[in-house]
Automatic annotation (TrEMBL):
Name the record gives this protein: Alpha/beta hydrolase
Domain AB hydrolase-1: 19-116, 176-234
Key words of the record: Hydrolase
InterPro entries: AB_hydrolase_1, AB_hydrolase_fold
An example molecular function term from Gene Ontology annotations: hydrolase activity
Highest taxon listed in the record's lineage: Bacteria
Organism: Pontibacter qinzhouensis
């Protein structure tokens, strides 16, 4: 009887409860993580901070301000170790934080991450008044174009009509394209999961393979019929791969 109790206690305490921090991209919303949050919040703390991508001060300090924000956020939450899950620009931020604080990140998940190459708004972005162009760029994010709803396109368009917000977005988009991480990735020794949509046109799968070659301890999982935000387009497959990685 006693040995059975000990076995049960051992199995119970083996569940990993390291908090998850989910980091959205430049135009990502907190709702993008809804199905991930609901899937994993039963056994661990899941946090979805809203990144200050419209902060006017970002225009001078670029990505550093976002790293500082994440440092302060994690400190306020009084977290010892975390798992960072970052999509697009959020993945870039996760890499920078991990390099600065390697002892605080247990595992890292990069989802269509910038840091090596990104075909985003940064290059031809001045066409902010062109509604059809904005619609095209929003649709470019998805394999399933029905995700580029009128509501989403209108929201992005309206955001870009505010000069201060448009300026901050342009600065961050260009920083994500120019601040290349290639020479630093070998210093990230922790386990890394690369989750990528096969049809991602913003960070194509060649970028995922490049990350895979440069990171010492990386696992690559590709999701078919999926673009730049797999947690939105293929949430079941996304969660399955993430669960295996977290429990491994």
């Amino acid at each position: 009887m006693n040995s059975q109790i000990l076995v049960l206690e051992k199995e119970t305490t083996s569940i990993d409860t390291t908090p998850l921090i989910l980091l959205h991209g430049l135009f990502g919303s907190l709702s993008n993580w809804q199905k991930v949050e609901s899937e994993f919040s039963a056994h661990r703390k899941v946090l979805v901070p809203e990144l200050p991508v419209y902060d006017r001060s970002l225009r001078s300090s670029k990505l550093d301000k976002l790293v500082t924000f994440l440092e302060q956020y994690i400190e306020r939450q009084d977290l010892d170790k975390v798992v960072l899950v970052g999509n697009s620009l959020g993945g870039h931020l996760a890499q920078l934080y991990t390099l600065r604080h390697p002892g605080k990140v247990k595992k890292l998940v990069l989802v269509g991450s910038s840091g090596l190459y990104e075909n985003s708004f940064g290059g031809t972005f001045p066409r902010v008044k062109d509604f059809s162009y904005i619609r095209e760029r929003v649709a470019y994010t998805f394999f399933k174009k029905e995700h580029a709803t009128d509501v989403l396109v209108q929201k992005v368009f309206q955001t870009l009509q505010i000069p201060a917000k448009a300026s901050s977005i342009i600065t961050l988009a260009r920083a994500a394209q120019t601040e290349n991480m290639a020479e630093y990735l070998s210093h990230i020794k922790i386990p890394v999961l690369l989750l990528w949509g096969v049809q991602d046109e913003i960070t194509p799968i060649e970028v995922a393979h490049h990350f895979h070659r440069l990171l010492p301890n990386a696992t690559l999982r590709l999701i078919n019929e999926c673009g730049h935000v797999p947690m939105v387009e293929q949430p079941e497959q996304f969660n399955q791969y993430l669960r295996v990685f977290l429990e491994g």
